[in-house]
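Q: My collaborator sent me two sequences in one message, no labels, and asked for predicted structures for both. Can we handle them in order? The first one she listed is below.
A: Yes, handling them in the order given. First sequence, followed by its structure tokens:
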Amino acid sequence: MHSSLIVAQYLLNKAGDIERSLTPMQIIKLVYLCHGWMLGLYRRPLIEDDVEAWRYGPVIRRLYGAVKHYRSDPIAKPLMPEADVADALAAFDKDERNIMDQVFNIYGKYTGIELSKLTHAPGTPWSEIRSADDTGWEVIPDHLIKDHFRELAQQP
């Protein structure tokens, strides 16, 4: 498992390679989708951080804390020192890179709002956990995320 920050940095690097940028909402949702597809297809987590059911969808608190100061602006700087990035990026295995590449290629074109709608629609793990009063910060268990993405993978 990896820090959500290094998964986010991998995706930011991919975006930078094609001269695109990502906002905090986009990166949080993309990291969640990478984690979900890793659980659903390979039955193992990608990130070590909990995913929480916040008001506007699934959020990874550590990652949110690192990018929230950008608000809705593009993330402009690396999330960790360059010396740490190279070693951390090298730790991803082939399956993890494949998932992250596919998620970026499929979902990376969506806005943060579009990704938010996608990840907190009815029937998603977020919708199963989120309380009706909108006051909680409950953790979304990996088993719910895994089951949801396994079901998505089986759809034609």
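Q: And the one she listed second?
A: Here it is, processed independently of the first:
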Amino acid sequence: MIINFRDMEETVLTEFYGGNKELRAYMHNDGLNKIMRAKLVPGASIGLHTHEAGSEIIYVLEGKGKVLYDGNYEDVKAGTCHYCPKGHSHSLINDSEEDLIFFAVVPVQ
């Protein structure tokens, strides 16, 4: 199956999970997983949240930022992958001067 993000309508989520600014994403949801290519502009973030029923994988395509994972900050940049297992909490923060573009997979709960 090919998922072509260029053929999708962009979704804009303002203050996602209580974060700053907006998350802009192209999302495929097949009822089992949400698969997305997304962007956080400088100063934007996804707020802190816990994955109660499933996990999340975030692979950074471009830019850099940080993840708040279980109370600790971890740097992320292009080529790094962040994994948040079921039962853990995280937030993604673009604290840089460039866009943070990432690919994410989240099982649908």
